[in-house]
Design brief:
The complex is a heterodimer.
Chain A: H1 12-17, E1 18-22, H2 24-37, E2 42-44, E3 47-48, E4 54-57, H3 71-76, H4 79-85, E5 87-90, H5 91-95
Chain B: H1 14-25, H2 32-47, E1 54-58, E2 92-95, E3 103-104, E4 108-110, E5 116-119, E6 136-142, E7 145-147, E8 152-158, E9 167-174, E10 178-183, E11 193-198, E12 203-205, E13 208-216, E14 219-224, E15 227-232, E16 247-248, E17 251-252, E18 257-258, E19 264-265, E20 267-271, H3 276-292
Antiparallel strand pairs in B: 1-20, 2-5, 3-4, 4-19, 5-16, 6-13, 6-20, 7-12, 8-9, 8-16, 9-10, 10-11, 13-14, 14-15, 17-18
Helix pairs in contact in B: 1-2, 2-3
Classes of the chains: A alpha+beta, B alpha+beta.
Chain lengths: 105, 296
């Protein structure tokens, strides 16, 4: 499943239970878009998974709705490239790929 | 008629009024009842003589909107309204971005265990905080919750990635099994405070104010509310305070995050060390404002 298969607006709980996975190249392009269209006090920063892919929880899609902090950035994105390049998976599948948190004595 | 009779009575504390103005400048809004609650909080802090203990404090309140503009505007950004201000004008919504659905004024701001955090822009080292007298404190406020299994979490943290500087509150559970709260405000080793919550991997965590305070190099105490939970009188190594921005809801190393705290938070503070009496006074003010905001 990719972002092409997702209908906006999403439901909040669905967004919290799914993750968006994408490549470093897509992350770089999104960072460029944010630099041009985003707000400086709302800074998306994806987690890096152990396989090098980047991850957001899918509820970030709430922020692309009209009035949301990422709306302008979303509108400027080339959806023909972005949507098929973002995989949508259950959150647990992405969490399994997060680097382990170190413990401290 | 005297023009003075036509002027509204000004009961709003200047710092609460200033906060409301900054919220509006940031695109947010504040209800009258919230402004009254925040104003009373400011007066209680002043009356207790502890205003100078706070370098930064956010009550996570105000009206909800898509960008959470009010919620991310700290009430205090320095030891006084007119003195040096520290850190960002707002807490930057970072990582996955907190959404409007994550916030309710009567319940606080909800994190997740993977991606969401706030960057305060507050640098403890630049602000001049040290581990020696008058020391440093960090605090968070949240409702009681059940800490999940195998979670090493940092609701508030400031650190440098390369050295053993540990300025944080660390709520953690593991397979020992154990669930505890740990802090040090300095280096690690023998100067830690640790409060064991339960001998289980995950447990119910009492809510309210959790504050760790170091008033000298040999006085570190952890409190829940006004009640001391743990203390340590061993001498802490005098590491300088961290140069990385203080983060909320995670540990930010300057390049990555981990230990996201996936629960609901109702405020945080950082500043100078506090005595037990000062913690008690702070707890009273914090408890009152949380109740006034409808947070039970």
């Amino acid at each position: 499943m990719t972002l092409e298969d997702v209908t906006l607006p999403i439901e909040v709980e669905w967004g919290r239970q799914h993750a968006l996975l994408f490549s470093a190249a897509i992350a770089g392009r999104l960072a460029e878009l944010h630099a041009e269209y985003g707000k400086p006090d709302c800074t998306p920063m994806a987690r890096v998974l152990v396989d090098g892919r980047r991850m957001f929880t899918a509820d970030i899609l709430l922020a692309v709705e009209p009035g949301g902090p990422l709306h302008a950035m979303w509108e400027a994105a080339d959806k023909t490239i972005l949507l098929p390049a973002v995989e949508v998976v259950p959150l647990a599948d992405a969490v399994a790929l997060l680097p382990p948190d170190p413990m401290f004595d | 008629m005297s023009p003075r009779l036509l002027r509204p009575i000004q009961n709003t504390h200047p710092e609460a009024a200033d906060w409301a103005n900054r919220v509006r400048t940031n695109g947010g809004s504040v209800s009258g009842s919230t402004l009254v609650a925040v104003s009373k909080f400011c007066r209680a802090i002043d009356a207790a003589g502890i205003r100078d203990r706070f370098y930064r404090l956010n009550l996570f309140c105000g009206a909800s909107d898509a960008s959470l503009n009010a919620v991310r505007t700290p009430l205090y950004r320095g030891q006084s309204r007119t003195g040096t201000q520290y850190g960002g004008t707002t807490d930057t919504n970072t990582g996955n971005l907190f959404q409007q659905a994550d916030y309710a004024e009567n319940n606080g701001l909800l994190g997740n265990t993977t991606t969401k955090w706030l960057n305060t822009g507050f640098n403890m080292n630049t602000a001049g905080l040290t581990v020696g007298s008058p020391g440093v404190h960090m605090s968070v406020v949240f409702p009681a919750y059940t800490h999940g299994a195998n979670q090493n979490t940092f609701p508030i943290s400031a650190t440098n990635a390369a050295v053993n500087e540990r300025f944080w509150l660390n709520f953690r559970s593991n397979t020992v099994p154990n669930t505890d709260v740990q802090s040090v405000l300095g280096s690690g080793g023998s100067s830690l405070v640790t409060k064991t919550i339960a001998a289980t991997n995950g447990a119910a965590i009492p809510g309210g104010l959790w504050i760790v305070s170091r008033t000298t190099a040999t006085d570190l105490k952890l409190y829940n509310g006004a009640t001391e939970q743990a203390s340590n009188g061993n001498s802490v190594a005098f590491f300088s305070t961290p140069n990385n921005d203080m983060s909320i809801f995670t540990r930010w190393t300057g390049s990555t995050t981990f230990g996201h705290w996936g629960y609901r938070m109702r405020g945080y503070s950082v500043g100078l060390g506090m005595t037990a009496q000062q913690v008690s006074d702070f707890n009273n003010a914090m408890t009152t404002v949380q109740t006034a905001l409808g947070r039970t």
